[in-house]
Design a protein that fits this description.
Blueprint lengths: L6 E9 L20 H14 L3 E2 L1 E4 L3 H10 L2 E2 L2 E4 L25 E3 L8 H14 L4 E6 L1 H12 L3 H7 L7 E7 L4 E8 L5 H9 L11 H11 L1
Parallel strand pairs: 1-7, 2-4, 3-5, 3-7, 5-6
Antiparallel strand pairs: 1-8, 8-9
Helix pairs in contact: 1-2, 1-6, 3-4
């Protein structure tokens, strides 16, 4: 009789709540926090996370992701700020405001210029760290682009097509597995079942640039220029 392999690692990726810098979150220069809708999204995330305890939590140091972590307040044995989990690589100037940023509570902060490494390479580094990490249940509070890169890296697929066709909602969950045979699996992608219809869809309606949001910051800036 065939027996299903056991679970070696259970990884949950959460896209941070909606940014207060609208529409389309095109500019990280001011390191914006969460919008009121983003805070409601993270309250819903908290209700879902309260059912679990995680061995290790990675958090992007960008303010909207850190505030997402604070509101969701997952039960965790160890939490680390990791600047490799910031949004898509957009150059040093975008992240100057977070240099020297330290959280109020007791977190370890991985410093350095990790956010300047190309997003795909950062995803490879993070995936390798996850595989080597002794923790079994891992939680990541990040951003759309780095989460998509992590999915592509985890599956060993072409990230370009995935980036073009996959949309992740604010506050959504994506689940990855590493089973006891070493096989990497995806449990679910962009699960927003914990969000109300208004929380999930109001965010979409507030972005008049449509798919431009999912084509990278350069495309968004060009679209805004054309609209102006």
């Amino acid at each position: 009789m065939y027996e299903l392999p056991g679970i070696a690692k259970d990884i949950v990726l959460i896209r941070c709540g909606q940014s207060s810098d609208l529409p389309g979150e095109p500019n990280d220069a001011g390191n914006p926090g969460l919008s009121e809708l983003g805070k409601k999204q993270m309250t819903a995330v908290k209700a879902r996370l309260d059912q679990h305890t995680y061995d290790f939590v990675y958090v992007s140091p960008l303010l909207r992701a850190y505030q997402s972590y604070q509101i969701a307040s997952p039960k965790a044995c160890y939490v680390e700020l990791d600047n490799r989990i910031t949004e898509n690589n957009a150059g040093r100037n975008w992240y100057q405001s977070m240099v020297g940023y330290l959280p109020a509570d007791r977190l370890t902060c991985r410093c350095g210029d990790g956010w300047l490494i190309p997003c795909e390479k950062r995803a490879e580094m993070i995936a390798a760290n996850i595989a080597a990490n002794g923790a079994e249940k891992i939680l990541i509070f990040g951003h759309q682009e780095i989460i998509k890169c992590l999915i592509a890296t985890w599956l060993g697929v072409d990230g370009v097509k995935l980036h073009e066709n996959l949309v992740l909602d604010n506050g959504s969950f994506t689940g990855l597995l590493l089973d006891s045979t070493g096989c990497r699996r995806v449990k679910y992608v962009n699960d927003s079942s914990h969000l109300t219809f208004a929380q999930a869809h109001q965010a979409k309606s507030m972005n008049p640039w449509g798919q431009a949001e999912f084509q990278g910051a350069g495309a968004m800036r060009q679209q805004k220029k054309n609209d102006d």
